[in-house]
Amino acid sequence: MTDLFVGLHRGPIDHEASSVINAVSNESIDMGAALALVTPPSTELLPRVDVVDAQGETSYGIAVGGDVDGIYGDGSDSTDDTTRATNAAGQGVVVVTQGRCKAKIDGTIVLGDPLTASAAGGLEVAAASDEVIAIALQAASAGDMAAVDVQRQGIL
Fold first, then answer.
1. Which domain holds residue 20?
2. pLDDT digits (tens, 9 = 90+) for 32-55
3. How far is the C-alpha of 155 from the C-alpha of 144, rounded, in Å?
4. CA angle, 49 as apex, 116 and 120 as ends, to 5°?
5. Residues 140 and 113: beta-carbon distance below 8 Å
6. What is the pTM of this model?
7. What domain count does the chain have?
8. Distance from C-alpha of 29 to C-alpha of 31, rounded to nearest angstrom
9. CA distances from 140 to 20, 86, 101, 102, 110 (A)
10. Burial class (CB in 10 A: 0-12, 13-18, 19+), 41
11. SS (H, E, C) the chain
12. 123-125 and 19-25: which strand pairing?
């Protein structure tokens, strides 16, 4: 699939229509990864996020930047820091919780598909009883970065 936003290296597609927050990473996080909230240590009150590791898990948003601030990659897991938002626990990560951004795709999707978190940390087509985090804004295949509209709509 052709990347429709090749000039967009980090951040949401449209700042005017997006809700973007800063959080603390709980591990290394790839750009475009689906994130879930985790319990922070007792010594901090900031939101802490981790890469989703279960299909259909309740997602908080999509990683679009961070302390390492790599660029959106090809959707595959990073082997170095060039496509990571963070590379260790305790670093800052920028998260789109609502609005349009690029996300890692772990299955074949078509325009308008409801998307849920996959076990590989990206997004895939939601099945019955999955938590819908986003809607596909373009068709894509596994391993792509694709435009999505994060809306956290709840259970399909």
1. 15-155
2. 999 999 998 899 888 999 999 887
3. 25
4. 40
5. no
6. 0.92
7. 1
8. 7
9. 24, 25, 14, 11, 7
10. exposed
11. CCCCCCCCCCCCCCHHHCEEEEEEECCCEECCCEEEEECCCCCCCCCEEEECCCCCCCCCEEEEEECCCCCCCCCCCCCCHHHEEECCCCCEEEEEEEEEEEEEECCCECCCCEEEECCCCCEEECCCCCEEEEEECCCECCCCEEEEEEEEEEEC
12. unpaired
Query: Is residue 6 in some structural domain?
Result: no
Judge whether residue 109 has pLDDT over 80.
yes
Domain assignment of residue 108, yes or no: yes
One-letter amino acid of 51: V
Let me know if residue 29 belongs to a domain.
Answer: yes
18 has a pLDDT exceeding 90: no
Distance between CA 29 and CA 45 in Å, rounded? Answer: 20
pLDDT band at 2 (very low <50, low <70, confident <90, very high): low
In a domain, 1, yes or no: no
As a whole number, mean pLDDT of residues 117-133 equals: 92
Locate 2 and state its tokens.
């052709």
Strand pairing class (145-155; 92-104): antiparallel
